[in-house]
Amino acid sequence: MADGKTTKDKGTDFADRMTQPAKRAGAAMKASGQKVAEGGSTISARLIDQAETNAREAFYAMREAAKASDVSDVMRIQSDYLRAQGQRSVDQAREIGELIMKFGQEAIQPLKDSTKS
Predict the structure, then answer these.
(1) How many domains does the chain have?
(2) Domain contains 117
(3) Which of 23, 35, 69, 95 is most buried by its number of CB atoms within 10 A?
(4) Range of the domain at 31
């Protein structure tokens, strides 16, 4: 053979050229899946933290309302709680949205990187 390679060597080279992209894609998908799992765990833990905070604040407001001396105090306590909870909800939704976006970007990065190879 002119290039010094046997037919068997050429067959192996061809097989490598055909299987390497699939191997890289498989490795990238595995890495991406790991990122998704990590992100899901982090988001779940953060949602639990947020729920705990919301419950704690609700019980605090109920205790304060139970100690109130008149209806106007109860209304003020309820109004303060609803205002704070509304802001907390906005902040919590923003935080979860940012985490989802961050983990989504991290999850697709291995796939992007594999196409560059």
Answers:
(1) 1
(2) no
(3) 35
(4) 11-112
